[in-house]
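Render this sequence as a predicted structure.
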Amino acid sequence: MNRPNIKTYRLVAMFVLGVLLFNYPLLALFNHPTLVAGIPILYVYAFVAWALLVALLMLVIERT
C-alpha cells in the first residue's frame, strides 16, 4: 500500500483551515456594521480569507 506524501497532508490541513475560516463563530466576529474603505468588514474578511486560502493552496500544489 502506498503511503500518502506530505502534499496530501498539507492539502487536508488547508481544507480544515478553510472550514474553520468560513465557519459560524469566526464569521460572527466580523458581522458588524463597521465599514473599511466603504466596504462592510464581513465582506473584507471573506475576501481576504479566500485570497489567503488560494495563495496557500497555490504554494502547496506548485511546490516541487
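Summary. The chain has one domain: 6-62. The helical segments are 6-21, 24-29, 41-62.
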